[in-house]
Design brief:
Elements lengths: L5 E4 L5 H8 L8 E4 L1 H7 L1 H9 L4 E7 L3 H13 L4 E5 L4 H10 L8 E5 L7 H6 L6 H14 L4 E3 L2 H10 L5 E4 L18 H6 L4 E4 L1 H4 L4 H12 L1
Parallel strand pairs: 1-2, 1-8, 2-3, 3-4, 4-5, 5-6, 6-7, 7-8
Helix pairs in contact: 4-5, 7-8
Bound molecules: cytidine-5'-monophosphate (C5P).
């Protein structure tokens, strides 16, 4: 079984637009991320269809609620056959432990990961929330809480990957967005890393959207990224 490192972000408003892209992609060569827009518009059916088409799906809904509610939502996501799902670490240890318990212990259970702090969080927002200390220390503290709660890893910026890889073992999954191949458009992303830099920094999987989805030939764009990783 191949273990593709690239997770293509299906940031589309309709299922048809998502399928137009997924039908050009090979499930042996990439995984897919379904986020809040596509899921809210198209529902679980889009996930089920992509799973049936052979894709590993990262369901990026970032659950954050009371432990019982998050646990039930995670169970429902696992029942859809997703490969990975996520919660907010700021929901706390009890919430994360309940989520972990809910997805079970079978060999084919999904990966359960957490968002520490959103990368959109700046110092002003951080202080508005009454959070103490630095953003960097808070990310490390929440990543530790994530691992202590039995989860498999975190979403983080590639800039944080080296420190997090040093703090956690090789089995801790680091999922990094904000990836831009050399010479590609930055778009609204700041402080990007190339795919190779991110993997060298300790990333386990790379979330890549527009460099692949906006390419005239998405498989060629994917192939070029794969080549850059060798
Ligand atoms: O098109 P692009 O490669 O910028 O897409 C990145 C994907 O990763 C988007 O789905 C975006 O929402 C997601 N993401 C991110 N930064 C985070 C968390 C998720 O860009 N911190």
């Amino acid at each position: 079984m191949s273990d593709p490192k690239i997770i293509v972000a299906l940031d589309y408003p309709t299922a048809d637009a998502a399928y137009a892209l997924s039908s050009q992609l090979d499930p042996q060569r990439c995984r897919l991320k379904v986020g809040k827009e596509l899921f809210t518009r198209s529902g679980p059916a889009v996930v089920e269809k992509l799973v049936n088409d052979g894709f590993d799906i990262f369901l990026d809904l970032k659950y954050h609620d009371i432990p019982n509610t998050v646990a039930k939502a995670c169970q429902a996501a696992a029942d859809l056959g997703v490969w990975m799902l996520n919660v907010h670490a700021q929901g706390g240890g009890a919430m994360m432990s309940a989520a972990r318990e809910a997805i079970g212990h079978s060999d084919d259970r999904p990966y359960l990961i957490a968002v520490t702090l959103l990368t959109s969080m700046d110092q002003t927002t951080f202080e508005q929330l009454g959070l103490q200390g630095s953003i960097a220390d808070t990310v490390l503290r929440l990543a530790k809480l994530t691992e202590d709660s039995g989860l498999d890893g975190v979403v983080c910026s590639a800039q944080e990957a080296t420190t997090l890889r040093g703090q956690h073992g090789d089995n801790f999954q680091l999922i990094t967005p904000g990836i831009r191949p050399a010479n590609s458009e930055q778009g609204d992303q700041h402080r990007t890393m190339t795919p190779k830099q991110a993997i060298d920094a300790g990333s386990s999987y790379l979330v890549i959207g527009r460099p692949i989805t906006a390419a005239t030939d998405p498989m060629a764009a994917l192939a070029a990224i794969e080549q850059s990783l060798i």
